[in-house]
Specification:
This protein is an alpha/beta fold. It has 10 helices and 14 strands. The chain has 2 domains: about 200 residues, Rossmann fold (3-Layer(aba) Sandwich), CATH 3.40.50; about 90 residues, 3-Layer(aba) Sandwich (Rossmann fold), CATH 3.40.50. It binds adenosine-5'-triphosphate and magnesium ion.
Length: about 350
């Protein structure tokens, strides 16, 4: 039987800043199978983007340094592969939608040309990307690629999609450019798609359309997706699984309905309690004091302990390992036993 599409094990990453080396990923474990959509959630600064960027090997080293761990894509450790091979995988097999879309379209080329290029490149390794025979002429392939570009732009909700293929990026709004990048990532037909806050800047109705498109893509092409988001509502709606991050660790993970209905880790419980009040600002959690700790000198043991309502002295002694709290549902907390969280405070 084939192994998982992606398996991250014990990934540790430090990032050097003028304060010293921040231990920003502190032993990440994450396994993604084809057909799964993993939501990666957690407060600002907890390492979601760096986890995604690490899979694409897009974190510059230095200032970053991989201390230990592995990132296996279909069995091969991306941290050990020559950069040339990683770049090939990145173009063809691992797609990424970035949190900051402003830098990722070439301002000098029309949107349509950029999408057509991606479609033709994808078709060169998977002929089924284009709706035309594999032995079609260059011209026919180009025409099919342009049709696909127009369709995809339409599916991400750009009005008048076909006509807009001839526009340049600066003629699009920020939200529209973000949607072009989503279209581009999907046209590339990756096996693994990492989408970092892909819909945060979009209207709710467009957001729903895009999330539906991502779900449809997983169903149609049996790919895996990691969806990075602050929004637990989006996770509940879209994802099959969820991993909750806190200060460089995955503190809880499992099937989405399991985690949402029976959150085991006190941090997940706090996140759940914080949905979606109009008053709660991004990055602040109702009922939880403090904020994500400084990762240059993180608190000893469980990094959540200083904010945790259930913390006891033992919590500061060692980083808790993940325990199974339900079917395929894990939480890294010593106060969690079996399926229950200790309720005494
Ligand atoms: N290039 C960098 N140089 C130094 N530190 C960095 C760099 N990029 C990220 N960091 C630090 O690493 C930590 C994790 O950052 P990351 O961008 O992964 O957070 P995030 O969970 O994606 O947050 P957000 O929700 O705000 O996007 C933060 O403390 C951040 O300050
Ligand atoms: Mg981020």
């Amino acid at each position: 039987m084939a192994g998982p599409l992606l398996r991250i094990r014990d990934l540790h990453l430090t990032m050097t800043s003028f304060d010293g080396a921040a231990h920003v990923l502190n032993g990440i474990d994450l396994t993604v199978q084809r057909g799964e959509i993993w939501g990666l959630v957690g407060e600002s600064g907890c390492g979601k983007s760096l986890t995604g960027l690490s899979i694409s090997r897009l974190v510059p080293t230095p200032p970053a340094r991989y201390i230990r761990g592995e990132i296996r894509f279909e069995g091969r450790d991306l941290l050990q592969l020559p950069m040339r091979e990683v770049q090939t995988l990145r173009g063809k097999r691992i797609g990424m939608i970035f949190q900051d879309p402003t830098t990722n379209l070439n301002p000098a080329y029309r949107i349509g040309e950029q999408l057509v290029d991606v479609a033709l490149a994808a078709a060169s390794h998977d002929a089924s990307v284009l709706d035309c025979p594999a032995d079609a002429s260059r011209r026919e392939k180009r025409r099919a690629a342009r049709r696909l570009a127009g369709d995809m732009l339409d599916r991400v909700g750009i009005p008048n999609a076909k006509a807009r293929l001839d526009n340049y990026p600066h003629e699009f709004s920020g939200g529209m450019r973000q949607r072009v990048l989503i279209a581009m990532a999907l046209i590339g037909r990756p096996d693994l798609l990492i989408a970092d806050e892909p819909t945060t800047a979009l209207d709710v109705s467009v957001q729903a359309q895009i999330l539906k498109l991502l779900k449809g893509t997983v169903a149609d092409h049996d790919i895996g997706i990691i969806l990075i988001t602050h929004n637990l509502g989006v996770v509940a709606e879209t994802c099959s699984h969820v991993a909750v991050m806190y200060a460089g660790n995955i503190v809880e993970s499992g099937p989405v309905e399991e985690v949402i209905e029976r959150p085991a880790h006190p941090y997940t419980q706090a996140l759940m309690a914080a949905i979606p009040t109009k008053q709660s600002k991004r990055g602040t959690l109702k009922g939880l004091g403090g904020s994500v700790p400084n990762l240059v000198s993180p608190p000893p043991g469980c990094r959540f302990a200083p904010r945790c309502p259930l913390a006891v002295a033992e919590c500061t002694q060692a980083l808790p390992s993940a325990v199974e709290v339900g079917t395929a549902h894990h939480a890294a907390c010593i106060r969690v036993t079996g399926t229950e969280v200790a309720s005494d405070v």
